[in-house]
C-alpha cells in the first residue's frame, strides 16, 4: 500500500464540540490508531503552569509552540498506516485526508465544558467565567492560525464534512460520518468492512 491510498481522517472542532469523543468513536469504528495532538498542547500548558487558553494566547506570539506540533504532523505524510487525527491543524498538514470539522453553539459548548473540566484540566469559577474562557479560546485559535498559516479554521469550505453537534445524538453524527467516509474510501480505492 502506498502513502497515496492511506486512509487518514482529520477531525477538528470548536472547544466543547465533542471532537475528542468523536475521534475516539471513529478510531474504534474503523480500527485505525488515534493520534491526539491536543495532548501535546495540554502537556506543554501543564509544564508551563498555565491553562490551555493561556498557552493558546502565548502561542499567538511564540510560533515555536505550534511548530512543535506542525513538524510532527508533516512527518506523518511519510509514515505508513491509516490514522485518525484529533488535531486543530492536521487537515492542513497531512495530505489526502478526509477533513471533518465539528461545530457547536457557544452556550452548548460552555455547558459541556463546565461539566467536564477535569478532562480539559481547566477550572472555571462559574458558567459566566466558562463562557468568557471558551469564547476567548475560540478567538485566540482563529487569530493564531490565520496569522501563522493564512488559513481560517472556521471556514467550512476547508472541510469535507461539517457537523454542528449542538443538538444531535451521537448516533446521528456517526451516520453522517459513515456516509462521507464510505465515499472517501471509494475515492481512495479502498474498501473497509461496515462502510
Please characterize this protein's 3D structure.
- With 195 residues, this protein is α/β, with parallel strands linked by helices.
- It has helices spanning 19-30, 38-48, 52-61, 64-75, 90-93, 106-115, 117-120, 127-149, 170-187, and strands at 8-13, 34-36, 83-86, 97-103, 161-164.
- A five-stranded parallel β-sheet has the order 2-3-1-4-5.
- The two termini are 20 Å apart.
Summary keywords:
globular, single chain, 53% helix, 5-stranded parallel β-sheet, alpha/beta, 9 helices, 195 residues, 12% strand, Rossmann fold
Shape: globular
Computed structural class: alpha/beta
CATH architecture: 3-Layer(aba) Sandwich
Number of domains: 1
What kind of assembly state do the chains in view correspond to?
single chain
**C-alpha end-to-end distance:** 20 Å
CATH class: Alpha Beta
CATH topology: Rossmann fold
Overall average residue pLDDT: 85
Spatial order of the strands in the main sheet? 2-3-1-4-5
CATH superfamily: P-loop containing nucleotide triphosphate hydrolases
Strand portion, in percent? 5-15%
Main beta-sheet annotation = 5 strands, parallel
Question: Which blocks of ≥5 consecutive residues have pLDDT under 50?
Answer: none
Number of strands: 5
Cα-based radius of gyration, to the nearest Å = 17 Å
Helix-strand topology string: EHEHHHEHEHHHEH
Helix content: 40-55%
The helix count comes to 9
Keywords: ATP-binding, Cytoplasm, Kinase, Nucleotide-binding, Transferase
Organism: Micavibrio aeruginosavorus (strain ARL-13)
InterPro entries: Cyt_kin_arch, P-loop_NTPase
Protein name: Putative cytidylate kinase
